[in-house]
Amino acid sequence: MAKKIKDENGNTYVQKKPFYKRVWFWLLAVIVVIGVSGAIGGNKSDNGGARVSSSPSSKKATPKYYKLGDTVKVGDVTYTLKSVATTQERNEFADDKPANVIVVTYHVKNNSNDDLPVGADLNAYDSDNNKMKTYPINGETVDAVAAGKEMDVTAGYGLSKLGVVELQFAPLVSVKQAAKFKVTVQ
């Protein structure tokens, strides 16, 4: 509290506490100390990034993969992988001539409040971890699903050799981690 002082002329003055005796000063000081200690002790690396070891680690985290028929929710969208099969169909107008073409069929349920573009929400990787290019096939779906609706989607991919294929589903504009499926194609 401030102290009231009267001088010899009868004027009243208020004597205030010094700033270092006020509560706001000490709160500010504590916040600054916490911020500085967090900045100093937070990240020890000055190089940025993280070192990648060339030797295999015995405690390597293996990501969880879903399988054919599983239903997975990514954000407000639910994906169900229905089938992955090879096809003999080839598009005579396609620039690429892959040795094998697979047809991926999946079900999408849009639980969001906005239309959801489909057809570009799937990334596929071959057994060598190379991203596969889309391949134009009959019945390929490049469309949108309205809010609260669902549909089956078909996509084609070309690959050089058959084997394990990794499929990653995530809405086109999403910050959520993709749902990863592994399927063996023969």
What does this structure look like?
The chain is mostly beta strands. Helices cover about 10% and strands about 40% of the residues. It contains one helix and twelve strands; from the N terminus they run ββαββββββββββ. Strands 3-4-5-10-8 form a five-stranded antiparallel beta sheet, with no helix packed on it. Strands 7-11-12 form a three-stranded antiparallel beta sheet, with no helix packed on it. A two-stranded antiparallel ribbon has the order 1-2. β3 (about 70-75) and β4 (about 75-85) form a beta hairpin. It is elongated and about 105 Å long. About 15% of the residues are buried. The mean pLDDT is about 85.
Which terms summarize this structure?
three-stranded antiparallel β-sheet, 186 residues, mainly beta, five-stranded antiparallel β-sheet, elongated
Low-confidence region ranges = none
Radius of gyration: 31 Å
Tell me the strand percentage band: 35-45%
- Percent helix range: 10-25%
What letter string, H or E per element, gives the SSE order?
Answer: EEHEEEEEEEEEE
> Quick one: biggest sheet?
5 strands, antiparallel
Order of strands, widest sheet: 3-4-5-10-8
N-end to C-end Cα span: 83 Å
How would you state the average pLDDT, rounded? 84
Put simply, the count of helices is 1
Number of strands: 12
Shape: elongated
Helix-and-strand structural type:
mainly beta
